[in-house]
Amino acid sequence: MKKLTIPEMHRLNKEEYKNAEKLQLVVVLDNIRSQHNIGAVFRTADAFRLEKIYLCGICCCPPNQEIHKTALGAEETVDWIYKSETMEAVKELHEQGYIVYAIEQAHDSIKLDEVELPKGKYAIILGHEVFGVQQEIVDAADGCIEIPQYGTKHSLNVSVTAGIVMYQLSCQLRD
User: Which residues, 6 or more positions from 33, have their beta carbon under 8 angstroms from its beta carbon?
Assistant: First the structure.
């Protein structure tokens, strides 16, 4: 089996990407401190052609060399907005008709493999690497989604979590 070359992958160029239809899924980053994690979220959002990313609170914004190291240019293709407070983003998304889920371990959270999304507009909130999504943001969300875990650790890296959730939800929303 021979690996595909870049031309054989038929990827969009920046202009084609900007004009392409996006999946109605938005990512909200709630006080993510690692610029590498932010860059990885940009790169994954580009891969699944998500609508946009909200960078909130202490999140660093492009242009930034550390974000670029992992985003590899996706910070130039994926639309993004900065909000000083995550609650501003949640309120704005609700006003625009989005169903907003915090990705968090919580009482009555929905296991990711049990989520069923009807067609619609959705946003997912990913939280700080140590503290997770702020409780007030969890309270303002329409619900919580949790990735089932079976080992000794209680959490995954935020960019890994983002990738797993973006993939699972994008599969449902593309069907």
Answer: 58, 128, 129
pLDDT digits (tens, 9 = 90+) for 100-146: 999 999 999 999 999 999 989 999 999 999 999 999 999 999 999 99
Sheet holding 110-111, edge to edge: 79-83, 50-56, 23-30, 122-127, 99-103, 143-146, 110-111
Residue 63: Cβ within 10 Å count: 8
What are the pLDDT digits (tens) for 68-81? 999 999 999 999 99
What does each C-alpha distance from 82 to 3, 75, 105 come to in angstroms? 38, 13, 25
CA distance 106 to 108: 6
